[in-house]
Write a structure and sequence with these properties.
heterodimer; A: about 150 residues; mainly alpha; about 45% helix; B: about 550 residues; alpha/beta; 7-stranded mixed β-sheet; 6-stranded antiparallel β-sheet; 16 strands; globular; binds flavin-adenine dinucleotide
Chain lengths: ~150, ~550
């Protein structure tokens, strides 16, 4: 079965959100991390959150679903100011759930290749690529040796 | 109770396969005695460490958390930290804490062994820096330590490998120290800066504290253990010891443990060596109650579980205009300063501290920490605030010497138990007035360094809660059985075939990370055992 034949309002193990929920969540995430003004950094809602959620535990998926259920389905059509205000209210009334939503949004965002390359970093995990680091300037250590009190003799 | 053929009596039974257990096993292996080590955890697989996956930072908040209560693996035991401002952190598995340690590898200083004589506080150790000198060297060689000779704050020593790169973070903070005329030096690090003994060099991945995928961090599962196993030591994982048993004569004669299936087993032994760290060791000793030892094993002094020392740690972060590439390179190892290490009573406290420069976090942790500290908001201003922090920070950790106090304790929790029903450890700890003054002094000096280095913003985070990684003093050494648990070579005063080799035997804590000294002590004790094999119990 290809994606177009799926009922978009049915939740399955490989489709953790209905299409309406996904649209709402995407809009919600774009409030939490909007696209950057210069267009380099995507908004969190532009990323493939559904794929990300497929890799998470059922508890995480349930919390995200629950968090988004606090918002009406017309959330995406509200003005930017209204959306921001609604998220602020949610963060105050449901701080724990908001923290989970924020944690997962950031987790999804900051491991995404598009985001990493937007930050000027290499895509993918650190290993086995590794990083290069300058050896550093040891020339002033002569001065340190001269100035040092030395260790306490016993 | 399972008492199978594999549980035939052994000559030496080591409990715990961490930093000290591994060193002792390796050292004793050449005696050709039958040596078995029981470890409650598993081997870890570096191919599964977080940095092999995209979600490497997220895992640090769950399965690879440094806090066993968060990690919650079946191999962990719970710890009740409710009556402590500092949480115990550890790793339970082959390698022990070295799987997750930052690998900052300084030695205690000569003065640390003589605090009573020099400063009139606590007690002198029954041994000195000189006693351990050759074992420090042996341990540096076995582990693979990188550093720079010539530090004027130490007696001469030569790390086997050149220092790991300081990077822009090191340069920046060193410039602050230089301006102030204060001591700094590249850190001794148990991380290999070049190929060494078949291991490849550090790749500067960053988060050493969730396991090193490259195998460049010197954790004992890849240093001591392969050698010890080759020489015939047997290491049994998923064996959680409940108690050490004693004979009618009051000698240790084995242990009762639970295997992976949760079955109760008995292992007989001629000699028992405890290497479960400053929390795990008193936990087992206090749980080993018998007619001979109603207050717990080796506890006639009443000092098992007392005098817990942590090293309170304060943290100051500097935010700089310049890009510092902060997330690249070993997080906890860069440079250090010993400017305020030795006692100067004009500062208002006795003893001193070490300042350890640390690098920054990856993108996810920068964002999430920034949110919690209120410095990186969600919403429209997120990117701007994030970019001013990410790769633009450096940290100074102020690591204070903690002095022994009887009321800082590890006891058995009356209610909380691990998955085998063994009582959990309960921590009671308060920060002394001396430590509070020291911490305040150190945090103020750290702010000064940041300012001198040109930080545009300085964030003083105060004392860090999740930093109980140094677990010391709960079964201290000494010559007098009334005021100590073990003698000057780790043998229990009360039970002559019971030895303790982990951080619990520290008399005082010094003001540096302890593992180099813990392992040197373990090698020294093993060597002394070997020299005294004929009359080990006299
Ligand atoms: C996040 C973190 C960062 C650290 N950074 C540094 C650093 O930079 N520098 C430094 O010097 N130190 C550091 N440390 C501390 C360092 O890891 C410890 O000092 C060192 O590992 C202690 O050695 P040990 O032999 O005393 O105990 P451990 O290495 O903790 O080993 C104890 C072992 O005993 C096992 N055990 C416990 N109870 C039982 C039982 N009942 N039955 C069977 N097995 C049992 C445990 O599973 C464990 O494997 C850090 C620790 C952590 C957690």
């Amino acid at each position: 079965m290809n994606d177009s034949t799926k009922d978009s309002n049915v939740i399955t193990s490989d489709q953790p959100l209905t299409s309406e929920q996904a649209e709402l969540l995407s809009s919600l995430l774009n409030v939490i991390i909007p696209p950057s003004d210069d267009g380099v950094m995507p908004g969190a809602g532009e990323l493939d959150l559904v794929s990300y959620l497929r890799e998470q535990t059922p508890e995480v998926v349930a919390t995200i679903r629950q968090a988004s259920s606090f918002f009406e389905f017309d959330f995406p059509s509200k003005s930017a100011t209204e959306r921001h205000q609604l998220v602020v209210e949610f963060s105050v009334t449901e701080p724990e759930m908001f923290n989970t939503l924020l944690f997962q949004s950031y987790a999804c965002y900051y491991q995404n290749d598009r985001v990493l390359t937007g930050l000027g970093l290499a895509a993918g995990p650190p290993f086995p690529r590794g990083n290069s680091v300058d050896s550093g300037d040891l020339t002033t250590l002569d001065k340190v040796v001269q100035n040092a009190k030395g260790y306490r003799r016993v | 109770m399972v008492d199978s053929a594999t549980n035939d009596p052994v000559d030496v039974l080591i409990i715990g396969a961490g930093a000290s257990g591994a060193a002792v096993a390796w050292s004793l292996a050449d005696t050709k005695m039958r040596i078995v080590c029981l470890e409650q955890g598993d081997w870890t697989n570096s191919a599964e460490y977080p940095t092999t996956g995209k979600n490497w930072e997220v895992l640090q908040h769950g399965a690879y958390s440094i806090n066993p209560n968060v990690r919650g693996r079946a191999t962990d035991y719970p710890i009740n930290n409710n009556d402590s401002p500092i949480d115990v952190v550890n790793f339970n598995g082959v390698g022990g804490g070295t799987i997750m340690y930052a690998a900052h590898f300084p030695r205690l200083h000569p003065s640390d062994f003589k605090v009573k004589s020099l400063d009139g506080v606590a007690d002198d150790w029954p041994i000195s820096y000189d006693t351990l000198d050759s074992y420090f060297t042996q341990n540096d060689r076995m582990m693979g330590v990188s550093g720079l000779a010539g530090d004027p704050m130490y007696p001469p020593k030569q790390p086997p490998l050149p220092p790991i790169p300081m990077g822009l973070v090191g340069d920046k903070i060193a410039s602050g120290y230089d301006k102030l005329g204060w001591h700094w030096w590249p850190s001794d690090s148990a991380i290999i800066s070049q190929q060494y003994e078949g291991r490849d060099k550090c790749l500067n991945l960053g988060p050493c504290m969730s396991g090193c995928s490259q195998g460049a961090k010197s954790s004992v599962d890849i240093t001591y253990w392969p050698e010890a196993l080759r020489q015939g030591v047997e290491l049994r994982t998923r064996c959680r010891v409940r108690e050490v048993t004693v004979s009618e004569e009051g000698m240790a004669n084995g242990v009762i443990y639970y295997n992976e299936a949760g079955e109760e087993c008995f292992q007989a032994a001629e000699v028992v060596v405890m290497a479960c760290n400053g929390v795990g060791t008193p936990r087992i000793l206090l749980n080993s109650v018998s007619e001979h030892f109603p207050d717990g094993l080796a506890n006639s002094s009443g000092l098992v579980g007392k005098n817990l020392m942590f090293h309170p740690i304060g943290y100051v972060q500097g935010v700089f205009d310049e890009q510092l590439d902060s997330h690249r390179g070993p997080t906890g190892c860069c440079i250090l300063s010993k400017e305020f290490y030795e006692t100067d009573l004009d500062r208002g406290f006795v003893r001193g501290y070490n300042m350890q420069i640390s690098r920054g976090s990856g993108p996810f942790n920068t964002a999430i920490q920034g949110y919690h500290s209120g410095r990186i908001p969600w919403g429209a201003d997120h990117h701007k605030a994030f970019q001013s922090m990410f790769d633009h920070t450096a940290g100074v950790a102020v690591l204070c010497e903690d002095l022994p106090e009887l009321h800082n304790t590890v006891t058995l929790d009356p209610d909380l138990k691990d998955s085998d029903g063994i009582p959990a450890a309960k921590i009671n700890y308060t920060l002394s007035e001396n430590s509070q003054k020291m911490l305040a002094h150190g945090l103020a000096r750290a702010e000064e360094v940041m300012e001198a280095a040109g930080a545009k913003e300085i964030v003083n985070n105060g004392m860090i809660r999740s930093a109980g990684w140094h677990l010391l003093g709960t079964a201290r050494m000494g010559e007098d059985p009334k005021t100590s648990v073990v003698n000057h070579w780790g043998r229990s005063h009360d039970v002559k075939n019971l030895f303790i080799v982990d951080g619990s035997i520290f008399v005082t804590s010094g003001g540096v990370n302890p593992t180099s000294t813990i392992q040197a002590l373990a090698l020294y004790i093993a060597d002394t055992m070997k020299k005294n094999l004929a009359n080990l119990f006299d």
